[in-house]
């Protein structure tokens, strides 16, 4: 039943190319994978924090690893830090599990971005999963970086592997449940590792490279302007077309519908009727599907905002997060942005929630919540 419910949570988002560039860590993840598979010294990589940056990382307290350091050993000193310890444990685990450049290959990078307050400055923070393919199946390694001072800064490395399974749509096992910790790491002390010659240390450009996404804030502001102006949904900036919606997103909805069909016996008669309606639209009239689950939601939200006299002057805050996995509805691999706008109204503060996909070098509206939510119960 939970899969069926998700079908009615479709929201919407528009986009336009902007001046500011938001980088994604795809190039970084590929280089990180090479350093891991060839057992390079992480501390020699340009993304490794210097002593001043390490103090900042320590204050953040983001690491969840429980790495043991033997008292009196060479690791028991100020220069041997959590990042190095986690890296050595991960490499030791790779040795035990026979994960190396011969037995595994890089597949792709999955990431989730959210602004993180660092020294009172909102800073892009990425959690990154590097997916590797072995003969026995896929595994992943996880690390965290900041985009700070126009470069990537490493702040955390998980000292265990993750399993990975990919299915379009749904919360289990795809979407939010794509990555699960293996819990293979049972080490009680940091192992000795002989590092290979580091090629990453001399590589040019990768530490500040990646796919450039348009700045979401001007895009979000334009969406809010269109809502305030009571624009018809089809005139919203960069609304995804019915053709692209059918090609890119309808397959994911079909997976959810198929899952709902399996649970149809436990549904109410009205839900079964709605399910059959969706099945028919997907097969016979995708334009109607686009209207009912995309543009109609925009129209309903626009109508409601008119009743509370919404204007852009009533926008209190706009926040966003970007990810190419961890979607409730859409399959892994799609770059999706989630935008929350908090507004003032006579009812108190309310939230507007909408989503966009990154296609053809711009954000395109794919879904919008058809009504506001109370900020005390934000999703």
Write the layout of secondary structure elements.
Layout lengths: L1 H5 L14 E3 L2 H12 L13 H10 L21 H15 L7 E15 L2 E14 L2 E12 L2 E7 L4 E3 L14 E3 L30 E3 L1 H13 L13 H21 L6 H16 L1 H22 L7 E9 L12 E10 L2 E12 L2 E7 L4 E2 L5
Antiparallel strand pairs: 1-8, 2-3, 2-9, 3-4, 4-5, 4-6, 6-7, 9-10, 10-11, 11-12, 11-13
Helix pairs in contact: 6-7, 6-8, 7-8
Keywords: Signal
Protein name: Nuclear transport factor 2 family protein
- The secondary-structure class comes to alpha+beta
User: Number of helix segments?
Assistant: 8
Computed over alpha carbons, the radius of gyration is: 23 Å
Overall mean pLDDT stands at 82
Helix amount, in percent?
25-40%
Task: Tell how many strands the DSSP assignment holds.
Answer: 13
Strand content: 25-35%
The main sheet comes to:
11 strands, antiparallel
User: How do the helices and strands follow one another from N- to C-terminus?
Assistant: HEHHHEEEEEEEHHHHEEEEE
Overall geometry comes to globular
Q: How many separate structural domains?
A: 2
Distance between the termini: 19 Å
Low-confidence stretches: 1-19, 169-176
């Amino acid at each position: 039943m939970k899969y069926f419910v998700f079908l009615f949570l479709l929201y919407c988002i528009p986009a336009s190319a902007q001046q500011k560039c938001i980088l994604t860590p795809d190039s970084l993840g590929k280089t990180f994978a090479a350093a891991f598979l060839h057992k390079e010294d992480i501390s020699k990589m340009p993304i490794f924090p210097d002593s001043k940056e390490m103090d900042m990382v320590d204050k953040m307290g983001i690491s969840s690893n429980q790495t043991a350091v033997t008292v009196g050993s060479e690791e028991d000193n100020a220069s041997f830090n959590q990042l190095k310890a986690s890296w050595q444990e991960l490499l030791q685990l790779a040795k035990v599990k026979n994960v190396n450049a011969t037995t595994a290959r890089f597949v792709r990078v999955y990431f989730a971005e959210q602004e993180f307050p660092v020294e009172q400055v909102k800073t892009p923070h990425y959690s990154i999963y590097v997916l590797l393919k072995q003969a026995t199946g896929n595994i992943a390694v996880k690390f965290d970086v900041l985009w700070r001072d126009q470069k990537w800064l490493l702040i955390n490395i998980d000292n265990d592997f993750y399993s990975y399974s990919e299915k379009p749509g749904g919360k289990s096992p795809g979407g939010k449940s794509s990555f699960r910790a293996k819990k293979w790491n049972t080490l009680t002390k940091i192992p000795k590792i002989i590092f290979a010659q580091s090629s990453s240390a001399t590589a040019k450009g990768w530490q500040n490279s990646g796919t450039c996404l348009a700045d979401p804030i001007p895009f979000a502001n334009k969406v809010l302007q269109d809502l305030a102006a009571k624009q018809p949904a089809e005139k919203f900036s960069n609304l995804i077309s019915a053709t692209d919606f059918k090609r890119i997103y309808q397959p994911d909805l079909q997976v959810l519908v198929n899952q709902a069909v399996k649970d149809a016996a436990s549904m109410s008669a009205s839900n079964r009727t709605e399910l059959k309606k969706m099945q028919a639209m997907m097969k016979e009239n995708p334009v109607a599907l686009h209207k009912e689950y995309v543009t109609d939601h925009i129209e309903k939200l626009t109508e409601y905002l008119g009743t509370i006299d919404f204007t852009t002057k009533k926008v209190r805050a706009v926040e966003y997060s970007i990810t190419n996995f961890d979607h409730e509805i859409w399959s892994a691999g799609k770059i999706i942005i989630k935008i929350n706008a908090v507004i003032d109204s006579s009812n108190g503060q309310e939230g507007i929630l909408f989503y966009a996909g990154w296609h053809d070098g711009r954000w395109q509206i794919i879904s919008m919540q058809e009504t506001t939510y109370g900020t005390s119960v934000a999703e």
